[in-house]
Design a protein that fits this description.
It is a single chain. This protein has about 450 residues and is an alpha/beta fold. Helix content is about 30%, strand content about 25%. Strands 1, 2, 3, 4, 5, 6 and 16 form a seven-stranded mixed β-sheet that branches. It has a five-stranded antiparallel β-sheet with strand order 17-18-21-20-19, sandwiched between helices. It has a four-stranded parallel β-sheet with strand order 10-9-8-14, covered by helices on one side. Strand 4 and strand 5 form a beta hairpin.
Length: about 450
Amino acid sequence: MSKYDYDLITIGAGSGGVRASRLAGKYGARVAVIENSRIGGTCVMRGCVPKKLLVYGAHFAHLFEDAAGFGWQVNGATHDWGAMIDAKNKELNRLEGIYNRLLRDANVELVAGRGVLGDAHTVEVNGKRLTAEKILIGTGGWPVVPDFPGKEHVITSNEALDLPTRPKRIVIVGGGYIAVEFAGIFNALGSEVTIIIRRGALLRGFDLDVRTELADELAKKGIKIHRDCTVRSVEKTAKGYSISFDMAEEMETDCVMYATGRAPATKNLGLEQAGVKTRDNGAVIVDDHNRSSVENIYALGDVTDRINLTPVAINEGRAFAETHYNKNPITMDYTNIASAVFSQPPVATVGLSEEDARKKHKVRLFITRFRPMKHTLSGRDERVMMKLVVDKETDKVLGAHMVGEDAPEIIQGLAIALKCGATKAQFDATVGIHPTAAEEFVTMRDPVPEKDPADKEL
């Protein structure tokens, strides 16, 4: 008989924790999952899924406008924000039910409450002490808002998904993917949107051509972008909120949303008393097998702050369960992981940016910009940008980037090619599907003329 209550206790029922737990349960382990919020975690309840549903809802505004160019008359169309939020919530409830059933079917015990490590094998929850041979931390991340006067007046992406009404004016502080995604949602539905960036440009870390192209497209849609600007304070007024900036400027708005990043949710989790080492931002330090500094304690997903993407957490969860409970050791491969930004237009990328590629390779660049066929009739002033970064010596495609409609769907396919080590010659030998935007990735023949990379503003 085991000296522990469970073989595995997972703290956090997000995408990674659920995948690891239900597979471990399926393979015969005695598993408990502890969660103090909704089952499904950030992605399903507060991130990817509800946000994408709102993106779909907002995009209809563009479709109605574009329809006129094709002979359709759509008169009197109006949007009910509350109805969309209600429909979104109904879908989240359905998904949560599915997650609960997946855990039940795998004989995983779900414990509602906040789990805190007591020691290397003990988790305290609801006044009880539960023990396990192994403990898995999957508590994810949480939005961070810096301290400043009036902090209590701002919202984050969590609250933006459940606003009772759509603000007529909204200021979004931050230039990352969350900021531009919500900017697109509110803008398309009729809000006056302003993005505030403390320094630099949008989407730090992405390829510079992608960042520039997206900023241009957002500006076309009427989204204002204020760069090199810092919020000093926010005050409540009779008509909304007043924002004061470091340049002695002020702005009136109906809503202030902060999208300035997320931090690992490890505060008051008992990591220190259990001996688990963390980085300065609270992220759990793990090795290639997701093992922490304590031999039997593991962590995965956003709480490790490596590649904060839901599919990464899911694959880490699978690798953990296969390795420890199915005698099938797996190590997660973090190379060439594709990602997308569901802005309007969307962005998708896989592999290296031009800037990162130049650090280790001599590169050739292939770039195309064009007006999509759809908009020759719709009249919309929106363009597509596609880019390939190629190793000059090996001809291997190091990176593929796109800004434009269907970018995530197209780049997902290219991610397979890059994972297989495809060369530019193999791209060139591939026959495209005509007429599509995707065929441009296999018809770019002429590289961009070389110039001194120092000439390019970073």
